[in-house]
Each structure stands twice: as structure tokens, then as C-alpha cells.
Amino acid sequence: MFRMKEKSKGKFNSGFWLAWFPLLAYAAGLLIISVTPAVKQLVRLDVSDKLGHAAAYCLLSFLFWNALSSRWKYSLRTALAAASLAFCYGALLELFQHFLPYRFFESLDLLSNAAGAGAAQVVIFVLRKTLLPPKGLNGGEASR
Fewer beta carbons within 10 Å, N or C terminal of the chain? Predict the structure, then answer.
């Protein structure tokens, strides 16, 4: 299903931790923010809550992509897996909030999470297509 990169033979090398630790730390931060009572805002921002959800899950999707790409070559499957994992994590947190007396489930939050997770993968795809040299040209791998 996924093609492994040649360089990542060992499971717990430094590249593994550089790729997965930011994801795990960020996911833990989202968990804490999602299950604790909402704090009163010190500064009133005229930014939609849904935009915040989209931005948060855009970053989570990027971190999933980064972690998965450290182990597997980039492909559409890797991108879809990263976006799906970010969305599923957000869906689990939203579901968990349903059972908390001081939080509530919002289906629009799920939609915002999905939009952010998908947007990250679109941006990654576009940047890879525009910034990386095509294969077979100077700096790229020769195709035979």
C-alpha cells in the first residue's frame, strides 16, 4: 500500500522522533484545549471560531503528512491518510466533547476541521509541484 523510503530502515532513529514528536505534542495540546472548560478571552478577536478550527486542523494535517512522509514516499495515499487522520482525530475530540458538561458537539466544527485538513494537503501538493524540480532535469533524478 505505502512504499517505504530506503533511508528509514530503523524504527526509532532520530528522524523518527523529529517527525513524530511535533505531531504528538501538538495533538496532546489539542486534546487539552478540547477537554478543558473554555476560558474567558482576554482579548476579543473578531475571528470566527470555525476559522480557528480550520487553522488548527490544517496544522495537524501538515504534521501528520510530515510524520507519514518520514516513513513513506509522498503519494496521494499519504496525503489522504494525513488528512483523514487529522479529521478523525478532530471527530473523536468533538464526540468526546458531547459527553462533557461544559463543552458541546458542533457539526460545523467537524466541517471546519475537514476543510482545514484538506486545505493543508492541497497546499502541500501545489508547493511540491511548483517548488520541486521535475524529474529528469538538472537536480532531479534521471528517468530511464
Answer: C
